[in-house]
Amino acid sequence: RRVHGDTRTKMLARRLASQACSFRLFFSRPLASTSGAAAAVDARASPPSSISSTVRRKWPPAKPRLTKLKTKALVNEIEKEQIAKIASQRSFQIPSFKSGDQLAVTVLLSESTARFQIYKGTCIARKNRGLGSSFTILNIYDSEPVRLTWPLYSPMVRNIEVLKRQNFRRSKLYYLDKKEWNVFKVV
Q: Which of 78, 90, 113, 149 is the most exposed place for a label (fewest CB within 10 A)?
């Protein structure tokens, strides 16, 4: 029988969960100090007063579990701290810009020689994903449309300057590389 990978994984997880559940039930019964099969059955039904009802053997030991929401909140909090740390180390503030704006981005080419390059172009996409945010600019170099993408919080990006603001209805302007370039070319 052919089963897709995801379905096979789910089936295996269900089987392991049911086995673990029966394993826990077996070991979570109270301990009996008397001997004999009948005494053991009676001990399971009602434990003697000398044994605390809270004394139980459990396997595997309980692990602190984080739910998905708690994990996401924790990751978002760490990302905010990292963004604040990066912003305090930078010599410039990231301007508010959106798709369609014309930008001038100063990028560090190599740290050994400390050479900078300024790229100008139209911002065609901006992805806001916390620390993983990025933006893409588009311009003509040697009569060819070129897309350049940088992480927003990269240490290689030294400055972002908004040259001109334009209004577009869409947030992703990937169709611009097929359009007439005289309108969008940044000099």
A: 113
